[in-house]
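Subject: for your reference before the review

Hello V.,

The reviewers asked for a structural picture of the protein, and I figured it would be easier to keep everything in one thread rather than splitting it across files. Below is the amino acid sequence we used in the manuscript, unchanged from the supplementary table.
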Amino acid sequence: MKSFDKKLVGFFDDLKDLDPVPLLDMISTIEDRYCDFEYIDEGGLKLIQTCRDLQTGRTVAMASLKNKARDNQKEAFLKEARLTAALQHPNIIPLYDLGLKDKQPWFTMKLVSGTSLEKLISQVKAGESQQAEDLNIRLDIFIKVCDAVAYAHSRGILHLDIKPDNIQISEYGDVLLCDWGLAKVMAAECDEELLECYSFNPKDIDLTLDGLVKGTPCYMAPEQTSLSKSKKGIYTDIFSLGCVLYKILTFEKPFGGSNVAEIMQNTVSGNYRKASEINSDIPPSLEAVCIKAMEVDPEKRYLNVASLQKEILNYRNGFATKAENAPLIKIIKLWLIRHKTLSFAAIIILAISLFTSWFAVNNLKLEKINALQKAEKSELEASKLKLENEFHKKFNKESAPRFFKRAQSAFSSYNFEDALNFVDSAVQLDPALIDAWELKGLLHIIHEQFGAALKSLEKSQSKELLYQLAKDYYLIKKDDTQALSLPDFLQLYQRSLDQKIYYLTGGIAHRKSESSLPIQERIDLCKQVILLHNKKNIDRRFKGSVKMNFHYDSTSKHLDLSNNPWIRTALILQHFPAHSADFSNTGIKNFSCFKKQPLRSLNVSFSAIVGLNSLHNLGLIELNISHTGISNLHKLREMSLGILDLSHSAVRTTHTLKELTTLEKIFIHQGQFSDIEVQELKSKFEVIIKP
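And here is what came back from the structure prediction:
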């Protein structure tokens, strides 16, 4: 046996003498760097896989977009990657590599072998795990998450989707904050290199819930819902951290409801069960921290993450938290617990002191001295902060025109929320930028915020029409959080038309079309606005009298405006919840009015449309463009049409038709294509020839 062992050792010694393949040669021959892909998880647009990096020899996680991602989705995906790469912190998941393959973006990041805080809490609650059964261990995790968020805020970045699912904990206790897909860059606070990530709000990307919110119900702040007018800021992430702390303490989500709308309403109302009602053993100190962090009013929350984190550390170290406003007796009790060796002596001293007037007088003097010291300290801190802000604004003043240009660009493409964010940054960096104040005032009018519009327009030079309009409507509606009534809105719309403020006309129409309105109120609004906007055409061609065909079936979600030849524009119909629409025999010239409608079937036959460039309803299954001037079908390559009627249209070539692999049936007219072309089409799908 010993002889065999010696021979075996000798065999391995011989192997050691063999020359290995040089790494230089091996790496230089690598063509496909990543291999051995395995599925991990996926979301609405994103796919996560593990793969092996042949250049480094390690296993990593790769994120990529699913098939058929649009360009704006790819842009948002890449900006998320660039933003994550800019955040280098031990509690933020590191990004390793970024690239394109077949025009599809991907990035690789650290593979975390562990679980999410959500799963860990569920396991502890079910008694399946003891890894974080101790509250102090869970608080350690929370403190590390606070470190990551505080660092991101110092770089001028908001996470805006903090929740237990996005907190990964490795088998060895590493804590990583993940998924920066909804992150937002604060223009006035960020570094210069991060400005490239400060872009338009990706409204065309499926990152929102029912088109109303960005974030996760139960963990989002009130200002992230459509029910609040407050802007998102550092306090938004603090609210979400408060919700995570609530889950750590109670093992329950803070806000409940039978549907998303009810959850959002409870969030905005601050309607949730106190932590102590779920578990009476939860320390009052931590419950008070939750309540303060989850205040509905952002100004009542913690000023920054460091303040919230300090409260948790105070509790961990045996101190009272500021949030609970602890009485003197509790402060003394905590002191005694922290200094057990001195407890007996302290009790004796306290007992003697309580029975002497000297203690009372001395205590008052001490409180007065402390108050004066605190006041002096607060004054010094305020002065320091003021100097820092003035230096910061002066340093970034030259960036203001860039943000103003971005605001103008966003406004021209009807991205009003982005435009308002950009112009806010512009005037914050340079309050002397007069044109920016005027654009800001216009945007507030479009948002029906007339009080804010007046304040902005007072600082601009051009005050005549817009200033008078804002002033008049401020008398009608002084609350900027409320919307105009339908009659008042129509009056505002008519006034913008009469005074030829067409950029305002289009602005308020686009903005109103994005609002969440009951269907009957939306129908009434659309009817009136369409009549107002087409009044000149009606007066000129139809002598001021027309009968409007407008019918919507809420069951089938079919919208019928056919046989209205006087309709030339109907932008107010954007975002209308129609699944099918009939606009045949109308005067519309493009597809702009159908933007953001969830259409599956559309009929624009006998209309004035001559091109498909403005068609953005990529979910269409059936399209009728017969008797139109449309000739180029290239746009249809982006869609998955099943039925297409192009009879008596200007289409005279079959090249694009042959590339539409999802087509099942087309309608053409006699002689539209050659017999050979018709036979080729019939070999691919059903062809119906009209006379």
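For the response letter, the relevant points are probably these. The two ends are 96 Å apart (CA to CA). The chain has a mean pLDDT of 83.

Happy to draft the paragraph if you're swamped.

O.
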